[in-house]
């Protein structure tokens, strides 16, 4: 399968509408040679633009979801369209969305671990209710978001639910870039899964974002990675490698706890 992670630049002068249009064009470009496309975390608003969360929140049947549903259907690709601020029953969530090749919304995940270090996310948003795994033609896919990477228990729960491919949407700061690289590799290796991440670049509310979106194999080897500029990170992976590696080196079967 061919994977494309769109490492979108957050530009301070852009409106939400402008950013959505630019991301839409990049999806069109990536779809020319991809089975699965990813976008980053709260990219349409800009993660650290907390003052815009309520104003720019949408429902799950709002224009953002409808647009990328149509993109997935038109191009015949799986599309993990990153996350947005979702308004649901009077509360706000950091919700990521996964569409299949027909444009059907087959997976939603509300971020479990809300970031509170120099962030208002924990004050403004409501946490989700834990691990989520969804069936695709590539195998079972687990969805997580940014700060979740620091909590290995969540990923182990996904493996217990059958996850073989881990998708991470993020707005990880450059300040802790080495942590990002470490966690991308570690979560893939310890769970013997492919991990595909999509991080923003650029600056949002004076926070420099780290980029380095990655595609990591079940041995913890980085197959492809972006730098610190807007780009589309691409690689071709073989999902059957997950089971082969788990059979060759069955560490998950040796768990005691």
From TrEMBL:
Q: Which domain of life is it from?
A: Bacteria
Record's CDD domains?
nitrilase_5
Report domain CN hydrolase positions. 1-239
Cross-referenced InterPro entries? C-N_Hydrolase, C-N_Hydrolase_sf, UPF0012_CS
Which molecular function GO terms apply here?
hydrolase activity
Question: What Pfam families does the record point to?
Answer: CN_hydrolase (PF00795)
- Keywords, sorted A to Z: Hydrolase
Q: In which family does this protein belong, per the annotation?
A: Belongs to the carbon-nitrogen hydrolase superfamily. NIT1/NIT2 family.
Name the UniProt record assigns to this protein: Carbon-nitrogen family hydrolase
Q: Which organism is it from?
A: Paenibacillus vulneris
């Amino acid at each position: 399968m061919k994977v494309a992670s769109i490492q979108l630049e957050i530009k301070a002068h852009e409106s939400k509408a402008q950013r959505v249009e630019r991301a839409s064009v990049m999806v069109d470009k990536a779809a020319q040679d991809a089975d699965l496309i990813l976008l980053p975390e709260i990219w349409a608003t800009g993660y650290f633009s907390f003052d815009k969360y309520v104003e720019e929140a949408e429902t799950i049947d709002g224009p953002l979801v409808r647009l990328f549903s149509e993109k997935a259907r038109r191009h015949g690709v799986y599309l993990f369209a990153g996350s947005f601020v979702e308004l649901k029953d009077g509360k706000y969530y950091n919700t990521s969305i996964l569409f299949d090749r027909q444009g059907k919304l087959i997976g939603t995940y509300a971020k479990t671990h809300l970031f509170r270090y120099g962030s208002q996310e924990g004050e403004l948003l409501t946490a989700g209710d834990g691990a989520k795994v969804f069936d695709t033609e590539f195998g079972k896919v687990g969805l997580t978001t940014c700060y979740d990477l620091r909590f290995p228990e969540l990923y182990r729960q996904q493996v217990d639910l059958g996850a073989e491919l881990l998708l991470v949407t993020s707005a990880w700061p450059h300040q802790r870039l080495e942590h990002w690289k470490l966690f991308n590799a570690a979560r893939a290796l310890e769970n013997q899964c492919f991990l595909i991440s999509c991080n923003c670049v650029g600056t949002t509310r004076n926070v420099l974002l780290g980029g380095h979106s990655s595609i990591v194999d079940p041995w913890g080897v980085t197959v492809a990675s972006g730098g610190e500029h807007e780009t589309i990170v691409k690689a071709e992976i073989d999902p059957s490698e997950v089971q082969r590696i788990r059979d060759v080196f069955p560490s998950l079967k040796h768990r005691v706890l």
